[in-house]
Design goal:
The complex is a heterodimer. Chain A is an all-alpha fold. Chain A is built from 22 helices and two strands. Chain A has helices spanning about 1-10, 15-30, 40-50, 55-80, 90-100, 105-135, 140-160, 165-175, 205-220, 225-235, 250-270, 275-290, 300-325, 330-345, 350-355, 355-380, 380-385, 395-410, 415-435, 440-460, 470, 475-504, and strands at about 180, 190. Chain A has a two-stranded antiparallel ribbon. Chain B is mostly helical. Helices cover about 70% and strands about 0% of the residues of chain B. The longest helix of chain B is centred in the middle third of the chain and has 27 residues, at about 70-95. Chain B is flat, with a radius of gyration of 24 Å. Classes of the chains: A mainly alpha, B mainly alpha. At the A-B interface, helix 8, helix 9, helix 18, helix 19 and helix 20 of A face helix 1, helix 2, helix 3, helix 4 and helix 5 of B.
C-alpha cells in the first residue's frame, strides 16, 4: 500500500505528466508517418531520456510506445500504407472504409479500440505481474539460462521464413556479446587492444543503427517511385471523413470480438519475441474465421478494423509483463526498455519487484495514463492528423540520419558509439536486403550476457555436471518447449509432405 | 558467387574469428569451483556459427538470386551508397575539425541538395531549422557539446 502511494506520488507530478504528454505527441507523429516505426522512435529517443530522471525518461518512452502503435493505423487507413509494421491488418479494412466515405469512423475506431485493447492488456499486467514475479523467486541460474535461450529461440523461429538464417544472426549476436570483459573471470576477450571495447559493444547504438539508420538505407534502396506517385495522388483525393464515433449498435456488435482479441493479443505479447505485427495477423485471421460475416473482412469490416486495433495495443501489457517479471523482452521495444532500465541501474526480474516496487507500479500507472491521453488527443485531432500526412520520405530520411548520429553520441558522449551505430546500420541494411532477420542478432546481443553467465554459474553449482539442466523441473520444461519450438516447423513440413505424397 | 554464398563465407569468417582465439583464453575450469574458462562460451557459439555457415554455403542452389538490379534499383543503390559516404565524410569532418554542427550541416545539405535534388532554398532552410533544433535540444537543453 505504501509502495502504491509512493508510486502515485512519483507519477502524478507535473514534470512526469508533461514528459508523458510529450511522448504521446511525438509517438503519434512517429507512428502516423510511414517510414518511422515505434522501435525506431524509441531507439533514437532512449539516449536522450538518460539525461532526465528515470520517471520522466520512462514516461516519455511509455507515452511514445503506446501512441506510436495506435497512430500507425492512421496512415494505414488514409493512405493504405501502415505507419508501423503492427498496422498492416488495419489497412485491410481501414482503407476500404475510407474509400467508402467512412474514414472518420475508421479513424475513430482505431483510437477507441486501440485504447480498449491497451486497457485490457494493462489490467492483465496488473493482475498477473506480481504473482509471476513471486514465482520467479524460485528461479536459479538454470532457469534464467533456459529463459534466455527460449527468448532467443522464439525470436529465431518467428522472425523469418528461414530458420537457418535466424540461427546465424542469433549466434552472431551471442558472439558479439562476448566482446569485452568476461562476466565471471574478468578476462579481456576480443578487445583488439582497444579500451573502448572493454565494456563490450553497447546495445543501444546497435539498435539505433539497425532499426534507425539501417532502415533509412533500406528505404532508400527499395524506393518505388511509381508507388510513391500513386500514394501522392491518393493523398490529393481528400475524401470526406464523416462521423467519428461508432453508434450504440456498432459498439454492442464489436464488444465480444474485441474483448477476445485483446486477451489473445496480451497472451501473444507475453510470448518472448512475438510482437504486435504477429498479434494483429493472428487476431485478424481468427476473428475472420469465427465472425458471423467473414465475407466483409478485407472489404471494410468494422469488426476487422476494431479487432486489429485492439490486437495492436493489446500486445503492450503482455510484452511488458514478460519484460518486467522475467527480464526477457516480449518484443523489440521491450528489448530497448530492458537496456534502458539497466542503464538506470535496475535489473528486470523478480529483484525489481522487491527493490524497485514503486517504480514498477509507476510504469503500470504510466501505461494507463498514456492510453487515456492518446484516447482523448486522438479523438480530438482525428480529422487534423488525417490531413497532416504530407511529409516527403526524403525529409524523414535526412532527419532520422541526423538524429541517429546525435542519439548514439548522446548516450555515453562517445564517438566510438557512433562508429558502432554506423557499422550496425550497414549490417542491418545488408541483412534486410539479403533476407536475414535482424531481430535474432539484437536479442543475441542483449541476452548473451545472461545466457553465458547463468550457464557457467549453473555448471559451477553442479561441479561441471550438465545433468543439472535436466533434474530441475522448470528448466526441463523450458528446454522441452525450446526443442518443440525449434523442431515443430520441420515436423509440420514433413507431415504436410507425407500427406501430399499420399494424396498424389 | 550466387545467392547466399557470400553471407555464408562472412559468417564462417566471423565464427572462426571467435573460435581461434578462444583456445588461448582457457576452455576448462582453472578454479576450484569448476567455472568454465573465458573461452568456453565463445568456442561453443563460434562452432555452431561455423557449422551453420557451412550448411548455408552447401545449401545454395546455382540458380539462386537475391533480387534483380533493374534501372531503378541501380539508381537507388548508388544513392544509398552516396548517403553512406556522406555520413562517413561527416564523421571524418567532425573528428578532424572538431566542429560537430558544421559537419552535420554539411551532411544535411548534401543529402537534401545533391542526393534528393531539393532546391537550394529549401535545403538551406530545412537544414538550418533541423540543426537549430538539435542545438537547442541537445546543447542548450541537455548540455551535450559533441566534443570528440
Amino acid at each position: 500500500m505504501v509502495e502504491l502511494q509512493t508510486a502515485i506520488a512519483n507519477t502524478l507530478t507535473p514534470s512526469v505528466l508533461l514528459f508523458l504528454l510529450l511522448g504521446v505527441i511525438v509517438g503519434t507523429i512517429i507512428g502516423a508517418l510511414p517510414g518511422l516505426s515505434a522501435t525506431m522512435g524509441i531507439a533514437i529517443l532512449t539516449p536522450v531520456t538518460f539525461w532526465f530522471a528515470p520517471e520522466n525518461g520512462f514516461a516519455m518512452l511509455i507515452g511514445l510506445w503506446n501512441a506510436a502503435i495506435f497512430a500507425g493505423g492512421i496512415s494505414a487507413i488514409v493512405l493504405n500504407t501502415p505507419g508501423t509494421p503492427a498496422s498492416i491488418t488495419q489497412s485491410f479494412d481501414g482503407y476500404p472504409l475510407y474509400k467508402q466515405g467512412k474514414g472518420g469512423l475508421a479513424l475513430g475506431i482505431n483510437v477507441i479500440y486501440s485504447a480498449i485493447g491497451g486497457f485490457i492488456s494493462i489490467l492483465c499486467l496488473i493482475i498477473f505481474a506480481f504473482p509471476i514475479a513471486r514465482f520467479t523467486v524460485k528461479f536459479g541460474p538454470t532457469e534464467y539460462f533456459s529463459l534466455a535461450l527460449l527468448g532467443l529461440t522464439m525470436m529465431i523461429t518467428v522472425s523469418g521464413k528461414d530458420i537457418l538464417k535466424g540461427l546465424l544472426m542469433g549466434f552472431s549476436g551471442l558472439l558479439i556479446s562476448t566482446i569485452g570483459l568476461d562476466p565471471i573471470l574478468s578476462v579481456k576477450r576480443y578487445t583488439l587492444g582497444k579500451t573502448d571495447l572493454l565494456s563490450g559493444v553497447s546495445f543501444i547504438p546497435v539498435m539505433i543503427g539497425m532499426f534507425g539508420l539501417g532502415e533509412v538505407f533500406y528505404q532508400m534502396f527499395s524506393r518505388d517511385r511509381q508507388q510513391e506517385a500513386l500514394e501522392a495522388d491518393m493523398k490529393k483525393q481528400n475524401l470526406s471523413l464523416g462521423r467519428i464515433f461508432p453508434n450504440k449498435h456498432e459498439f454492442k456488435q464489436l464488444a465480444k470480438p474485441t474483448l477476445f482479441a485483446s486477451l489473445v493479443a496480451t497472451l501473444i505479447g507475453a510470448v518472448p519475441a512475438a510482437g504486435a505485427d504477429i498479434s494483429t495477423i493472428i487476431c485478424w485471421g481468427n476473428a475472420k474465421k469465427i465472425s458471423k460475416h467473414p465475407e466483409e473482412y478485407g472489404k471494410g469490416s468494422l469488426e476487422g478494423l476494431a479487432v486489429s486495433s485492439c490486437a495492436n495495443n493489446g500486445v503492450l501489457g503482455g510484452a511488458l509483463m514478460t519484460m518486467l517479471t522475467l527480464g526477457i523482452p516480449g518484443d523489440a521495444v521491450t528489448a530497448i526498455l530492458i537496456g534502458s532500465l539497466m542503464m538506470y541501474g535496475m535489473q528486470p526480474g523478480s529483484q525489481m519487484f522487491e527493490k524497485n516496487k514503486p517504480f514498477v507500479l509507476s510504469i503500470m500507472i504510466l501505461m494507463v495514463l498514456a492510453n487515456i491521453i492518446f484516447l482523448v488527443l486522438g479523438l480530438a485531432t482525428v480529422k487534423v492528423t488525417a490531413k497532416g500526412l504530407n511529409v516527403k520520405p526524403e525529409s524523414v530520411w535526412v532527419t532520422v540520419s541526423a538524429l541517429c548520429i546525435v542519439g548514439s553520441f548522446a548516450l555515453n558522449n562517445s564517438f566510438f558509439d557512433v562508429i558502432i551505430m554506423l557499422i550496425a546500420a550497414i549490417v542491418g541494411f545488408f541483412a534486410k536486403t539479403a533476407d536475414f532477420p535482424p531481430g535474432p542478432l539484437i536479442l543475441g546481443l542483449l541476452l548473451g550476457g545472461m545466457l553465458e553467465s547463468n550457464l557457467r554459474r549453473a555448471l559451477a553449482l553442479s561441479q561441471g555436471k550438465v545433468a543439472i539442466f535436466f533434474t530441475r523441473p522448470i528448466t526441463l520444461g523450458l528446454l522441452i518447449i525450446i526443442l518443440f519450438t525449434v523442431f515443430y516447423p520441420f515436423i509440420k513440413k514433413a507431415m504436410i509432405n507425407k500427406k501430399r505424397s499420399k494424396i498424389s | 558467387m550466387k545467392g547466399n554464398k557470400i553471407p555464408a563465407l562472412l559468417f564462417l569468417g566471423l565464427g572462426l574469428f571467435f573460435v581461434i582465439p578462444s583456445f588461448s583464453m582457457g576452455l576448462l575450469s582453472t578454479t576450484s569451483d569448476k567455472v568454465p574458462g573465458a573461452g568456453f562460451f565463445p568456442l561453443l557459439m563460434g562452432l555452431v556459427l561455423v557449422v551453420c555457415s557451412i550448411i548455408l554455403y552447401c545449401r545454395v542452389k546455382e540458380t539462386e538470386k537475391y533480387f534483380e538490379l533493374n534501372e531503378e534499383k541501380k539508381k537507388n543503390f548508388l544513392i544509398t551508397l552516396a548517403a553512406l559516404m556522406t555520413i562517413i565524410l561527416t564523421l571524418i569532418l567532425w573528428k578532424t575539425l572538431k566542429i560537430f554542427y558544421f559537419a552535420i550541416f554539411v551532411e544535411c545539405i548534401v543529402f537534401n541538395r545533391f542526393l534528393f535534388n531539393r532546391p537550394w532554398r529549401f535545403s538551406i532552410i530545412f537544414t538550418t531549422v533541423l540543426v537549430g533544433l538539435v542545438y537547442l535540444g541537445f546543447t542548450v537543453g541537455l548540455s551535450i557539446n559533441f566534443v570528440v
